[in-house]
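Go through this:
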Amino acid sequence: MVLDHCGFPDLRGGPPYESAAELFALAEFEQLHLKITSHLLEAAEAEGDPCGQALLEMLVSVFGASRLVWGS
């Protein structure tokens, strides 16, 4: 299963994205993949995370790169 736009997580407050704890808790479901989109990266950037870099690093750290896909 692929969760579009990472499920529109709450990114308020920016890194370390404590408000998006529900998203990161989904990592336990091994068949769940996340779709990374420009909407998500723009939302992260609006919270002070240039290009969503910190968010992407956290997603890779928690879910693994093999469970992330790009979508537009």
Q: What stands out?
A: The longest helix spans residues 53-63. Strands lie at 2-3, 33-36, 68-70. The mean pLDDT is 97.
